[in-house]
Amino acid sequence: MAARAKAANASAIYATIRAEIVAGELAPATPLREAALASRFGVSRTPIRDVLSRLLHDGLLERAVTGLQVATNSIERTIQVYDLRTLLEGQVAAEAADSRREADLMLLRRLLNRDRALDNPSTAERVRVNLEFHNAVWDAAHNGVLRDILERLAMNGVSAPQTTLDVGDRWAISLDQHAEMIDAIEDRDAERARHVAQKHLADARALRLKILTDDLNVESA
């Protein structure tokens, strides 16, 4: 019983820190110290050590001279992640068009309607609901292996100083692309679903690289 309670506690701590990284509340290069986290959550260092190990395995943390810190993304790493995600997001959207069920479509429509109804959502909210939508697309493909890979890749892309969803009218465009994706999936048009999903990721990739290069230019000025 005690072991299960400890595991549940560690899972809750993991979920909290993971959510804070994904939402940008813990910025890239933020150090994560066992002692500080143990004090914050009122636990010993043992579950914290396990949590940090999981986050490191997820690619959300990296090793630095002073210990573990929130991962930072180089331009090279960003390109690699986006190129692979673009390929696989296209594949999962195509598979969703072939394998989706009515319940999948209902969820996708509900999520889109919810997101369109948001009034000036915060950065954290945009990141959260966007990931929920993509999770629903992955689930609609009913391919557990592909879903697991995409989840890992998506987590590798969250450690950034700014989300692409905050750039210009990207939020509105992203929702329109989500709508196009749903239409293609509903029509069982696998190639159109693949095209829309890949265009969606290619646009995000271009914006992410612009953010990173702009930051480098500022630092070198």
Quick summary:
This protein is mainly alpha-helical and 221 residues long. It is built from nine helices and two strands; from the N terminus they run αααββαααααα.
Describe the protein:
With 221 residues, this protein is mainly α. 74% of the residues lie in helices and 4% in strands. It is built from nine helices and two strands. It has helices spanning 2-22, 34-41, 45-57, 75-99, 102-117, 123-141, 144-156, 170-186, 190-220; strands spanning 61-64, 67-70. Strands 1-2 form a two-stranded antiparallel sheet. Helix 4 (75-99) packs antiparallel against helix 7 and helix 8 (170-186) runs antiparallel to helix 9. The longest helix is centred in the C-terminal third of the chain and has 31 residues, at 190-220. The chain is globular, with a radius of gyration of 19 Å. The model has no long low-confidence stretch (mean pLDDT 88).
Q: Please count the helical segments.
A: 9
User: What's the end-to-end separation, in Å?
Assistant: 58 Å
Structural class computed from helices and strand pairing: mainly alpha
What portion of residues is helical?
Answer: over 70%
Strand/helix succession: HHHEEHHHHHH
Q: Label the overall shape.
A: globular
* Residue share in β-strands: under 5%
| Gyration radius, rounded | 19 Å
The average pLDDT is 88
Largest sheet: 2 strands, antiparallel
For this entry, give a set of tags.
mainly alpha, single chain, 2 strands, 221 residues
